[in-house]
Design a protein that fits this description.
The protein has helices spanning 7-27, 39-82. With 83 residues, it is mainly α.
């Protein structure tokens, strides 16, 4: 049985994840304005906005980590094929 490793495809996939993370991060803007004048409403709104921001930042980090891992594994696969 022959195992074929597509290191170039894995590398390209990893770089695509990196570009996706960059595009996603550039598209995120967070206003510091308080759109709600009443603290009873503004407080929960801030909590929701902060939670969303943290989730988006985590998604960006995850996309980068996945991409970096794919690029690293592509390099390892290439070295294994050459050995």
């Amino acid at each position: 049985m022959e195992i074929i490793i597509d290191a170039a495809g894995r590398d390209a996939s990893g770089r695509s994840f990196g570009r996706l993370a960059e595009e996603y991060e550039r598209g995120l803007t967070w206003s510091q304005d308080e759109p709600l004048p009443f603290e009873e409403l503004a407080g929960p709104y801030r909590e929701l906005r902060d939670g969303l921001r943290q989730s988006c930042e985590q998604l960006t980090r995850t996309l980068r980590q996945v991409g970096d891992g794919q690029v690293l594994m592509a390099a390892v696969n290439e070295r294994v094929e050459q050995a």
